[in-house]
Amino acid sequence: MDRPARSAASVNGTPSHDIEVLRERARQVIESARRRGAVVRLAGGVGVRERAGSLGGIDLGNRPYRDIDFVGRLRDVRAVDASLDGLGYTADRVVNAQFGTVRRVYHHPDGYHVDLFLDRLDFCHRIELLGRLELHALTLTPADLLLAKMQIVERNRKDLIDAALLLHNHDLVPSDPSAIELDRILTLTSNDWGLCATAGDFLDVLRASLPGLGFDEEPVRSIESRAAQLATAITAAPKSLRWRTRDRIGRRVRWYREVEEVL
Question: At what angle do helices 182-189 and 142-150 cross, to 10 degrees?
Answer without folding.
Answer: 30
